[in-house]
Amino acid sequence: MIKPPFLISIIALLASCTIIDTETDSAMSHSYPKEIHLSAEVQRTIAQSRAAIGENAPFSATILGWETTSDATTYSDASPSWSTDTKESIIASPTKGSAVVFKNEQYYLTDGGKTFMKAFSPIGKVTGQLYTFGKIEADGSTDVLVSNEIFGTKSSAAPSLAFSHALTQLTFYIQKGESIPEDDMDDVRVIQLNGIQLPVGFDLKSRTLTVSETQNLYALNATAGNGVPIPKDKAVRAGGSVMIAPITGDAELSLTVVTNHGELNVSKVTSTTGNEFRAGISYDITLTFMRKEISSSATVTNWIKGEGGATVE
Q: What InterPro entries does this protein map onto (predicted)?
């Protein structure tokens, strides 16, 4: 299961789709159904996130619920009993919880059973045990949040629901190396990520992110004359931040970079997490341009701090 370190927590007020026949002795013996209340505080490990959903940013979510008498280890073997979207935006505040209003009210079971819950953003649909995100932008601008798994009962205290970033974020910076004169008029027009994957959904049974086929993605794609000038003394940002599926295992991050002088290839970018670019971590990748090569270094920022690098012919 993906467990990034940055968490966004919420206070959620849920209400019910459980049908109670109040005309029968059986239903009345359990009194009225109890509305589900969730509460949480932000676990603020970092002052501010530069992800699409950062501090005080609004977002919507879909909440799934399982009504069962099973243990916590077995509930995900079944399809959800219900699902509901948020009616109003949640505010990702690091200082206080945000009230959540759901389109469809939900209540705890009246017979002592447990209600397990898990939530996702962006809003999507569930089929069986597969949750599919409703809209993922092809340019890597969609942030994906996945909550922890919680449960409550009619008699229990309000549980907490916390969201965490399921993707990795990459931001690129450029600068000149010592071998290039300061007065050279060089610029970068294209930074292309090769063979990356975007999120598609979430497998509820295995508790893992589902992803697209491999594809290329632009962090920068400018026309001739509109490139980003390469500075000498201090690295500058080139293009926008992109969010992609984590790169783990034997997979590697490679780049194709186009300057006013032609195309260059960075066959592998590494960081303090090795070849991996992990969920919930924002990486600053600095490309240093030499006469015959690009030196790339990746610094981990915002959620976890660190540094790393690689030099590629």
A: Mfa-like_1
Domain chopping of the chain, boundaries: 7-165, 168-312
- CA 35 – CA 38 distance, rounded (Å): 10
Tokens 């940055």 label which residue?
Answer: 6
Most confident of 60-64, 69-73, 158-162, 187-191: 187-191
pLDDT at 87 over 90: no
229, β-bridge pairs: 187
Return the structure tokens found at 293: 């090569």
pLDDT of 187 reads: 92
Output the CA–CA distances (angstroms, integers) from residue 10 to 61, 94, 119, 162, in the order listed: 11, 10, 11, 6
Taking Cα atoms as reference points, which of 269, 253, 259, 251 lies closest to residue 289?
Answer: 259
The answer to whether 126 touches 81, Cβ cutoff 8 Å, is: no
- Look at 121 and 310; give whichever has higher pLDDT: 121
Q: 64 is written with which tokens?
A: 């799934």
Instruction: For the beta carbon of residue 32, count every other beta carbon within 10 angstroms.
Output: 12
Burial class (CB in 10 A: 0-12, 13-18, 19+), 169: buried
- Listed residue (194, 81, 73, 64) closest to 132, CA to CA: 64
Q: CA 167, CA 282: separation in Å to the nearest integer?
A: 9
Residue type (1 letter), 218:
Y
pTM, full prediction: 0.79
Whose CA is closest to 173, among 255, 247, 251? 255
Closest to 126 in 3D by CA, of 36, 61, 51:
61
Residues paired with 258 in a beta bridge: 190, 263
- pLDDT one-digit tens code per residue, 224-251: 889 999 998 889 999 999 999 999 988 8
The domain 168-312 having CATH identifier 2.40.50.150: the answer here is: no
Most confident of 81-90, 91-100, 272-281: 272-281
